Amino acid sequence: MSNLMSGAKMLLECLSREGVDCIFGYPGGVTLPLYDALYDGQIRHVLVRHEENAAFAAEGYARATGKVGVCCATSGPGATNLTTGLVDALMDSIPIVAITGQVATKLIGSDAFQEADTFGITRPATKHNYLVKSLEDLPRVIHEAFYIAASGRPGPVLVDIAKDVFQGQGHYQPVSSIHLPGYKVFTEGHTGQIRRAVQLIQEAQRPLVYAGGGIVAAGAASELREFVELTDSPAVLTLMGLGALPASHPNYISMPGMHGSYASNMALTGCDLLIALGVRFDDRVTGRLNAFAPHAKVIHVDIDPAEVGKNRAPEVPVVGDVKRVLAKLNKLLSAGEPLPESVSASRRDWWRQVREWKREHPLEAPEPSDTEIKPQTLMAEINRRAAGRATVCTDVGQHQMWAAQLIGFEEPRLWISSGGLGSMGFGLPSAIGAQMACPDRLVFAIVGDGGFQMSIPELATIAANKLPIKIVIMNNGHLGMVRQWQTMFFNNRLSGVQLEGFPDIAKLAEAYGFSGCTIERPSELGPALDRAVSEPGPFLLNVKVAQFECVYPMVPAGNAINEMVLGPPQPVAVAAK
Amino acid sequence: MLQVISLVLENKPGALMRVTGVLSQRGYNIESLTVARTLDPEVSRMTIVVDVDATLRQQVVKQMNKLINVLQASDLTESPAVVRELVLVRVRTAQESRTAVLKEAEIFGGRVVDSSTEGFAIEVTGAPEKLNEFIDVMGSYGEIDVTRSGALAIALDARKLKLQPPVPTKAGVKMEETAI
Ligand SMILES: Cc1ncc(C[n+]2csc(CCOP(=O)(O)OP(=O)(O)O)c2C)c(N)n1
């Protein structure tokens, strides 16, 4: 079976066969043939207003569904504009495929118009990348790109395609298999190590589950839940793992780390067995590494061998797909003997201690004020309306941390946030991707007044595609998180963080043809959120909040995570127990 | 401490950059790097000598093993291996020292590859430290020019190359269903 077609058409054929139903992109000179092929409507194309947002939208799509997100851009400036999104996807292990056009083969290397060394520039920004100079290679490369993006530890793959490859005519021969002899995907964990893990789990007096984005990527939420219940262990979820265990689950504590809860950080410091599942011991979680979980033996399960032992040498390393490893652990654990009474007694004490920590410093919004809207109150009110089932995309900064602390998720893939790279400008475009992927879902984009202004152009994309996203701007008049650091660590010398000149949001929304408003009084908050949610189309809600709130708890950089600043005005350092 | 890493990699454009990128990203300076085809023209072998913090040695090799184009990366620093290097030295020497230079070259197992009234070009292979000595000795006879190949290493224990088998694509699965 073969058919004569252009390279551009062949590319779309490959994308269709990979199950792609929509791509986010921006056209240009060298991708004209591709856009001509898209004209036929085989695949929906969403025109973003900046290529960086094409990558972020593809990420939003992938994060919401687990499917590979696709974005495309033209050569030169189009491709360079994509790079932040590529690195973002690399840091958070998100499967996306980026297609870029390149100048014609015979012009490559001649400083041709809009030529950039995309292959070179994006090498360290991707899991793998390709330069396609011959039509013959195209189908194989596209299928390899999807396979690499989605398998193992997922990540971004870029395919740079020369213009003449799009234009060339060739016989399409479906590629039925690909061969990447050097690409090792570790799936089954080592049986011996899994047995050792079971033994440590049965002996542990103070076990703690520390789970993250790997659970989400592996689709292992139900295995995680079973594991947590079998071991009756308390659990913390990293920023990337929120929703991997339902927020309402009795064993769930909360997020740990720099802005994690008191109970999570104390539990990490006090546990004698740390069961690390699909996490990478990120510095924002561990604080000062040599004081992290100082009494714990560590079981570390990860699909990426380079993560195991990178920051903390585990007693039991398990390289494998966390879904399969958890299934095996669960099987062994359910067949195991009941715990001896001495261990059970210690476990009860451990739980008593964890509950005590939760009670001492619960992670909840402070009492609402009647003069100003507290940012935490805003998050608590969104939480009430999201009810653990809405998609929440955030930007980066204070609002992101409050949202992570105060909005609960009952399922994975609802919480969409730029974790590893912390890219401002992520919130709005990622919501576009998520809403495209899940048209019937209630999608919030919670953004700061800084990050919002990085993505204002995408309001046009939202308007044009009638995406009913609820955009909530937590407006504190500042680059809040940077302001917080200046307040706490630089004598409150506020430098370069005031955001004067913010636009009138009602007018801005109107200019784009949808509704929006600004509120300031606490009494307006509930009704405004209700209106946003009930509006059939997009809604732009600008919430002026107390300007000088700080996110607590906070672990100052360089501290151990049990050395938290719990609140203003007199910082209280908590000593290790 | 210098680390010797031996890699087997696909002979493809960009593969070399991916490997060196693992090092340059971390600010490591490469002491030497050699690469050439193996018996299979689609596969190259590379030897890198690099000064890496002891704590990061494993990490660097693991990161190299993760690269799609790398079939195998191994740290030979502490395992049984032979490391050899080739040096070409051009020495300008006075008439009266010519015999002495030849004598020294012979001691180092060198071979004269060019001779002129000005001096010699001499080729020596050996362990890198031995070549250092040879270069020092030649330097004492007159002005020298030196080109070194960089270290080549081969493990003495057999390391089986584990290659991954082909995998089916989604396109293949769908192949029967869609007529185009
Ligand atoms: C692209 C980018 N530039 C700079 C930063 C550094 N940064 C981190 S948080 C932050 C402040 C964000 O302010 P805003 O969007 O208003 O959110 P808030 O912290 O007030 O919630 C900045 C500038 C970043 N994360 N990303």
Distance between the termini of chain A: 70 Å
Rough outline of chain A: globular
Overall strand count of chain B? 10
- Cα-based radius of gyration of chain B, to the nearest Å: 22 Å
Radius of gyration of chain A (CA) equals: 25 Å
Proportion of helical residues of chain B: 25-40%
Per CATH, the superfamily of the largest domain in chain A is Thiamin diphosphate (ThDP)-binding fold, Pyr/PP domains
* CATH level-two architecture of the largest domain in chain B: 2-Layer Sandwich
Biggest sheet strand order of chain A reads: 3-2-4-5-7-6
Number of domains of chain B: 2
Distance between the termini of chain B: 59 Å
Q: What does this entry show, briefly?
A:
The complex is a heterodimer of chains A (577) and B (180). With 577 residues, chain A is of the alpha/beta class.
Could you explain how this protein is built, in words?
The complex is a heterodimer of chains A (577) and B (180). Chain A has 577 residues and is an alpha/beta fold. Chain A starts with a strand and ends in a 33-residue tail after the last strand. In chain A, strand 12 (273-277), helix 12 and strand 13 (297-302) form a beta-alpha-beta unit. Chain A has a 6-stranded parallel sheet with strand order 3-2-4-5-7-6, with helices on both faces. The model of chain A has no long low-confidence stretch (mean pLDDT 96). Chain A is built from 22 helices and 20 strands. By secondary structure, chain B is α+β, with helices and mostly antiparallel strands. Chain B has 2 domains: 2-79, 2-Layer Sandwich (Alpha-Beta Plaits), CATH 3.30.70; 82-152, Alpha-Beta Plaits. Chain B has 5 helices and 10 strands, in the order E-H-E-E-H-E-E-H-E-E-H-E-E-E-H. In chain B, the strands form 2 sheets. In chain B, strands 5, 6, 7, 8 and 9 form a 5-stranded antiparallel sheet that branches. In chain B, 28% of the residues are buried. Strand 9 (177-178) of chain A pairs antiparallel with strand 10 (167-168) of chain B. Thiamine diphosphate binds next to helix 16, helix 18 and helix 20 of chain A.
